[in-house]
Amino acid sequence: MSQRVLVTNREWAVRTRDRGARFIKPLTGEIADVEAGTLVLLRQFAFPAAPEDVARQLSGDSGIAAELLQRIDELVDVGLLIAHDDVYSGPRPTGFFGTPLTSLADAIAAPERSVVFLGVPYEEGAAVKRGTAGAPSRLRSVSRAIAELPGDRGGVWDPVSRTSLLRGTRVVDIGNIGSRTPPSRSMMLEDLRSVVECIDSAGCVPVIVGGDHSLTSAVVAGLAPGHPRLGVLQFDAHSDRSGIETVDISSLHHGNVMDHVAAMPHVKFLGQFGVRQLTQEPDAAQENVRMWPGRSWRDDLVRVQGELPRDLSWHLTIDCDCLDPTFLPSTGTPLPNGLSPDDVTATVRELTQELDIVSIDLVESIPSADDVSELVLADVLLRLVDAVTSGL
Asked: pLDDT of 269-305, one tens digit each?
């Protein structure tokens, strides 16, 4: 008999209050007030989960599992939690590149190491142009036009390189995190940090699709327990370093996220590629930060590889504005004289020969009217995942 699996009902919008939260269903006007303790319980179902697993995890040895299960049933009665199978109407959608949509628990329970896709429709850190929250779902849909990965880990054939991409790699998608209206910046980022830590601790490769670039701070934070010595490879038109005096979360946005990342104790090195934004003054020198601006590294990648520490695990963050607008115009802050898709994918493929890249995020896409930008990004994403996982 299969376990009952529940997930938060995204028909409700949520507004945080001093003690708990108020949920509102815009279509009907229904209101449900939730106190702080129950809100913590409800957040455990941001991804599909079995009530028994959640109760066991939260109760420990305190003997309150039965009470937690009763409170979960009450949340079902109110409609804040629903059965996972009730989320979809009509044909059940698939994940990135036609992969199965599954629960977090099932994604990390398989005996073999897996690639786990996660969408983060989050744009609370966007300071210029909104729209990145819609990118994960649009990219997921369009990605099937690039490739549909078979369920038997057979990969897909590339007639240009005459190689099979992602052959033998298990790839799953756990959908999007969060509700339609994020409860708060700190809560959303904490949920993301926790899920990344869970995926990474299971030995899987998290692939995060945003969303604005500020979410990278939570991704990198989630890698800290498993990777106390971490490097970050950033492909971006902007350095995202503004020299802020505090790295408190209240200061975080997509334009200073790398200040936050570089300040984390477990981040030992930040390598920046493709930066070309004109500024009043150079970024302040920082011991653990190295920049290769524009396309400056492409003719001497061997030298660059020699400057990247080999004793670190690495996170790869791709701001899609690193690409030239002729390839990808649909982003919040495009700049001319950018990179080609091959600049990015070929460089990462070379770097993976020497570096252990354990996770990826792709951010700052804004859905386009014709899906051209999404097609470019989906192709880049597929090839990046193949490069990073070729040794699995």
From this structure: 999 999 999 988 888 888 899 999 999 998 889 999 9
State the CB neighbour count (10 A cutoff) for residue 391. 9
Per-residue HEC secondary structure of 229-259 comes to CEEEEEECCCCCCCCCCCCCHHHCCCCCHHH
Predicted pLDDT at 391: 61
Peptide bond connecting 222 to the previous residue in cis, omega within 30 degrees of 0? no
pLDDT in tens, 321-375: 999 999 999 999 999 999 999 999 999 999 999 999 999 999 999 999 899 999 9
Return mean pLDDT, the chain.
87
What sign has the CA pseudo-torsion 157, 140, 200, 59? negative
C-alpha 117/C-alpha 98 separation (Å) is 12
CA distance 315 to 228: 12
DSSP letter assigned to residue 320: G
Centre a 10 Å sphere on the Cβ of residue 378 and count the other Cβ atoms it contains.
26
Contact 392, 113 (CB under 8 A): yes
The model's pTM is 0.80
Which amino acid is present at 88? Y
The residue that leads in pLDDT, 247 or 276, is 276
In the numeric block, the tokens 């959303």 are attached to: 188
Helix residue ranges per DSSP H, 166-248: 185-201, 216-222
* Phi, psi angles (nearest 5°) of residue 17: -130, 175
* pLDDT at residue number 336: 96
Q: Is the pLDDT of residue 184 over 70?
A: no
Residues 6+ apart with CB under 8 A from 302: none
Q: Which of 277, 130, 137, 140 is nearest to 212 (CA)?
A: 130
Q: Which of 372, 386, 384, 383 is nearest to 139 (CA)?
A: 372
Q: Which two tokens stand for residue 82?
A: 């629903």
Tokens of 5: 């699996």
Cα 202 from Cα 174, distance rounded (Å) = 15
Q: Is 15 helix (H, G, I), strand (E, B) or coil?
A: strand
